[in-house]
Amino acid sequence: MNRLFNRLFLAATLIVLLLFVALWQWLQLNHEFSRNQIQQSLHRELAEHMAHINPLLSQGITSDAALKEAFHDFMLLGPSFEIYTLDPNGNVVAYDAKDEKIKTHRVDTNIIQQFLTGENLPVLGTDPRSEDIYGRSR
Questions:
Q1: What secondary structure letter does DSSP report for 100?
Q2: Domain ranges of the chain
Q3: Residues 119-137 pLDDT 10s
């Protein structure tokens, strides 16, 4: 009888442990999803604002000087901002990072179009500093 109790206790303990692990994973994913959703909703109009406060960018001039000034302005807002200038095909034209930090020099512009048309957030796309798509391997 004692052995049966030990086996049942061990099985119940393992089941509870597995449930806790599953709950923890779900909470982690939910937290990441919510964080991305909130950040994107807050920064939806950031590029437009960036163009308005920088006189060269507002005229459509994307020279190195204009971009460097814009990158500097937004780094003041927060060091977590990563700003990339893209051509219409999604090629990364300019960025404020060392060359070895950039792993992907092209991003999917369909994802950007989804973001601009107001798709449900978060919209996950290519991260030029990684070979992942927002933390998930391709």
A1: G
A2: 1-42, 44-80, 82-138
A3: 888 888 888 888 765 544 4
